[in-house]
Structures are given as C-alpha cells and as structure tokens.
Amino acid sequence: DIQMTQSPSSLSASVGDRVTITCRASQYIGTSLSWLQHKPGKAPKLLIYGASILQSGVPGRFSGSGSGTDFTLTISSLQPEDFTTYYCQQSYNPSWTFGQGTKVELE
Amino acid sequence: EVQLVESGGGLVKPGESLRLSCAASGFIFSNCGMSWVRQAPGKGLEWVSSISRDNYIYYADSMKGRLTISRDNAKNSLYLQMDSLRADDTAVYYCARTSGGKPLDYWGQGTLVTVSS
Question: Using CB atoms, which residue from B45, B50, B56 is nearest to A38?
C-alpha cells in the first residue's frame, strides 16, 4: 500500500494566519491527491482534488499544489470555521489511503 | 441535491455480522463509483472498500476476507456486509461517492458500528 505522511500532526494558529500542511507519498502518485476537511460529528468535505483543483463551492483561500510524492495544502487566511482536521488522500491505485490527519487549533 | 444516508449500524458482539446500507439520491447512482470509509474513535479516516460503476471491487487489507461490498442500481443503494467483526472494527462508517474523476466528493453522515461483548 502507498503510505501517506502528513506534517505537522497538529498546529496552532490565529485567525488571519497563512497555514501550510504537507503530505508525502511513499511512492509516485502523480496528481492523484485530494485534501479533505473533517469537522467532528460531520461528514468529511472534499476541498481539493487532482492535487490543485478546487472543489466547487470551496472558498478560494484554500489551495493545493504538488505532484509526484510531495504535496501541500495552503489556507491563505484562516477563518474561524477552518479550525478543524485536514486529511490528504491518494487515489493513484485502487487501494486508497489517507494521511493521519492534521489538526488546526486556535492559538 | 446529492444525499447519502447510511443505516444498519449498531452494537454487535465479537464474531457477529452486520450489513450496512447507504441510500443515495440526487444523482445518477449507476454512473458513480462508491466507497466505504471508517473512523475509529480518536483515530483518522481509513478507506475500507470501493466498488466502481462497472462493479470492480477493492478492499482494504485490514478487512479483506471479512467484507462484501455490493450495489443495487435499481434501488440506488450501496451495501457493506461485514463478517467476523472484531473490537477494532468499532468505528463510524461513512459511504462516499466518486464522480467525474473526483474521489469522495460527497459523503454521508455515517453510521456507528460498535463491536463489544
């Protein structure tokens, strides 16, 4: 299986901060990388797919980049509703895998 | 509006079986791949199984041999038969859609499976 490693596992930030989360794949996955947001008790939400394509309805402060094995999710200006957990997920091969998650907390 | 509604979760004893269902609406179900993803208490998201629109089936190694995923396009429904359940299968199980090259673009609210004696 392809292992996905996110860093950091958690971070503290303030409203308005620029935040970057990284995700590294254990092997080449092209741009078959998605980013999801998951709030407790809610359905996870797709933010980015194809490494950099913003899902319809997702605010433009979210952006994704990368290809091959190294990827980033950037939130340009954190809003109060963004303090939650984020996951990367690869769909390069049929055995999909998620990163372990990054919790974004209020500083 | 796309809607996915899971059902069938509950409390079962180790070794027992459970069948989860996911009722889909608001889109052409037969055109989409579907997946099950779970989240154990205090843990992250874990992919469990997927079935393509052409009925290609994939399972996570952690549950392979104990799972059967299926779909009924006439009923717009997805199913997950889970056998020989263990305590570490305790989790919220979500169904999710894949459409137009967008993996997991819509999710249900999840159904809780608790395996305990």
Answer: B45
